[in-house]
């Protein structure tokens, strides 16, 4: 295993130490078959992305209960994991035994647009665990300041593994925590809550700017 491959393994293992509570779920923690599959999915995803050498990173706020909470991979639902060509190999598995893989609107929009631009950026969330409402695990909530602060520590570790030239912050929460990071970044409207059109426009604008800067 390469040095960076070992760093990825250590990075994923470090995620398991974050303690879940009544309003936050760490899908990588524990010794269940589901948590093991999610850890393996994330490690396989990061390893595949390391091989692709992405220069752009999409940074969201936090996993959703229909997406990353179920798969372990940011901006990726069970439906994407099952049907998208990027995940069509034995390294990726569904953690649940289900005949109807769950879909998530944001994940669907993001991967549709990635297909349109033929570029796969690294996907991550500033808070990498699922924040939910108390006693409502099948819900989403905005991560709090202390959660974002902790999540930023993991994010900085991730940036030590990948050679990222630009960060696209999907949402203001993600953007807010980038001012002291030594990597150029830009705000792009999050596709949720009616933001699809502005997300697409912002995505194309920033991708084109990055491509032109290399010419």
Q: Could you walk me through the main structural features you see in this protein, from its secondary elements to its overall organization?
A:
By secondary structure, the protein is α/β, with parallel strands linked by helices. The chain has a single domain, classed as Uracil-DNA glycosylase-like domain (Uracil-DNA Glycosylase, subunit E), CATH 3.40.470.10. Helix content is 43%, strand content 10%. Helix 7 (172-176) links the parallel strand 5 and strand 6. The mean pLDDT is 92.
Number of domains: 1
Order of helices and strands: HEHEHHHEEHEHEH
Order of strands, main sheet, comes to 3-2-5-6
Fraction of residues in helices? Answer: 40-55%
CATH T-level topology? Uracil-DNA Glycosylase, subunit E
Q: How much of the residues is beta strand, in percent?
A: 5-15%
Multimeric state: single chain
Summarize the main sheet: 4 strands, parallel
């Amino acid at each position: 295993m390469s040095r960076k491959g070992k760093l990825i393994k250590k990075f994923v293992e470090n995620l398991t130490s974050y303690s879940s509570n009544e309003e936050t779920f760490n899908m990588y923690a524990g010794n269940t078959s589901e948590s093991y599959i999610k850890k393996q999915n994330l490690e396989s995803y990061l390893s595949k992305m390391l091989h692709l050498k992405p220069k752009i990173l999409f940074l969201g706020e936090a996993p959703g209960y229909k997406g990353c909470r179920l798969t372990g991979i940011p901006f990726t639902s069970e439906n994407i994991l099952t049907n998208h060509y990027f995940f069509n190999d034995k390294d990726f598995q569904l953690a649940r035994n289900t005949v109807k893989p769950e879909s998530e609107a944001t994940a669907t929009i993001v991967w549709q647009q990635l297909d349109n631009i033929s570029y796969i950026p690294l996907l991550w969330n500033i808070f990498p665990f699922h924040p939910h409402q108390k006693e409502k695990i099948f819900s989403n909530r905005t991560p709090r300041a202390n959660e974002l602060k902790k999540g930023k520590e993991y994010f900085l570790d991730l940036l030590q593994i990948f050679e990222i030239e630009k960060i696209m912050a999907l949402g203001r929460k993600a953007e807010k925590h980038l001012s002291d990071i030594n990597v150029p970044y830009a705000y792009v409207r999050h596709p949720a809550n009616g933001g699809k059109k502005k997300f697409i426009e912002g995505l194309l604008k920033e991708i084109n700017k990055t491509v032109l800067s290399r010419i």
